[in-house]
From TrEMBL:
Coiled coil (UniProt feature): none
Entry annotated with the keyword Oxidoreductase: yes
UniProt keywords, alphabetically: Flavoprotein, FMN, Monooxygenase, Oxidoreductase
Annotated Luciferase-like domain residues: 1-118
Matches recorded under InterPro entries: Luciferase-like_dom, Luciferase-like_sf, SsuD_RutA_monooxygenase
Keyword Zinc tagged: no
Name used for this protein in its record: LLM class flavin-dependent oxidoreductase
GO biological process: alkanesulfonate catabolic process
Entry-linked Pfam families: Bac_luciferase
GO molecular function: alkanesulfonate monooxygenase activity
Length: 180
């Protein structure tokens, strides 16, 4: 992964008209024109995520703009965010990392609605095991507040039933306005 990150950032930051070369253990590029260039300036925002306790936070600190945690508790998130922030502080001339988390959410106005949405989240998946947030809009906002208190500024919501637009409407109308 580190080699891939070095290649991406090298290609994106090579000045137009110049060539990029890289020799690594797994990958090699020789005299690449490093084209096309990203439209975003200075480069495409890079997100590095994962639960690895040492290398992942270190890679995020060195290469990424955002550090994302998949399906982690507030306690686990606090530990990994602290490692990423400490590693970032040792990297010169880089702004603080955006901290984000991916979470399964089952929100509803009634117990039956919550149970239906929660059941879909527990269907078999290749994603890492997770303990989704569930409950009323007020409870979901309270749970998300625990992540915000850690510095989380972005949440990627995992919704398995993409046809349940009422769920999105409920989150947008009754949860988001309660967030800090």
């Amino acid at each position: 992964m580190e080699e891939q990150l070095r290649i991406l950032t090298g290609l994106w930051t090579t000045p137009p008209g110049r060539r990029f070369s890289y020799e690594g253990r797994h990958h090699r590029l020789t005299d690449s024109p490093a084209l096309p260039k990203p439209v975003q300036r200075p480069t495409v925002p890079l997100i590095v995520g994962g639960r690895g306790p040492r290398r992942t936070p270190a890679l995020a600190a060195r290469y990424a703009d955002e550090f994302n945690l998949p399906f982690t508790s507030p306690e686990q998130s606090a530990r990994l965010y602290a490692r990423a922030n400490a590693a970032r502080a040792r990297v010169a001339d880089r702004p603080p990392l955006v901290l984000s988390v991916g979470l399964g959410i089952a929100c509803g106005r009634t117990e039956a609605e919550i149970a239906d949405r929660l059941a879909v989240l527990h269907e078999e998946s290749r994603l890492p095991p997770e303990e989704p947030l569930y409950g009323s809009p007020a409870r979901i906002a309270e749970q998300l507040g625990a992540y915000a208190a850690l510095g989380t500024t972005r949440v990627y919501v995992r919704l398995r039933d993409l046809s349940d637009l009422g769920h999105l409407d409920l989150l947008a109308a009754e949860v988001v306005p309660q967030l800090p």
